[in-house]
Amino acid sequence: MIVFDHVAKRYGGGAPAVDDLSLQIGDGEIVVLVGPSGCGKTTSLKMINRLVEPSAGTITIDGRDNRDYDVNALRRSIGYVIQQVGLFPHLSVAENVATVPRLSGWDRRRTAARVDELLDLVGLPPADYAKRLPAELSGGERQRVGVARALGVDPPVLLMDEPFGAIDPIARERLQDELLRLQSVVRKTIVFVTHDIEEAIKLGDRVALFARGGHLAQYATPAELLAHPASDFVSGFLGEGRMVRRLGLIRLTEVALPPVNGAVPRTSIDVHATLRDALDAVLRSDDGRVAVMRDGAVAGVVDVEAIRRVAR
At how many degrees (to 10) do helices 169-186 and 108-121 cross? Predict the structure, then answer.
């Protein structure tokens, strides 16, 4: 667990970059720090591995003040992925991924096995990618190598600072999906910075929304954030259509479905679909009703009223 306890950061005599930040990040969670430019989210991230030192307050990792760690050992124990990736251009993909294991004193055989394991994990088969140079890769592929390198010695914590911000929208969506797949396998504590609220809602188990001046405006699950914004600032940052976006977080498996009353609707949808998918199907159906299917059988019916009841 990572705990920020009344943490602040000031540069010189100016306004605080981070002001009285207190929050807890649980083991195995993806917590996304989001907000407008200059709100302190990247500064907060960098204080975890002491690339930035706080002016006040404490940050503990598993109950231990991070200032009690040797700073180099601390940074090697925490994975770090940035937007520019920062691969060494003169080293091969395999050599880049091997960086932290090599610095940690791993022998050659163990390092090579770990490199192959990680490249497979991020979807870059070693036989095809290990010997390539970064210049031979696409932006998305370089970002995958960056993630593999950050996981080199199996760190419990992974810091990601706008890692997909410079990538085209299609590749970005694929990398978001890949990160969620990886998290289902490796279960790291991930702190992820973005300025994109859609990305935050998609990836975060919880979202920390910052306001300018380094203030934490709200810290909540995506569903809670969308349903109950804590202030006008939060509502404004979320923008229009937040309730429709919230429907994308709720699956039909979580909804009490009314039984079939009369003829079974001709339009159907799987019970594992989201309410956003269901709304789309309802709008396309002939009579405003959709049969919800579970294992080939009708589990109930969904219509606009059923969706509205859940969305309130």
Answer: 120
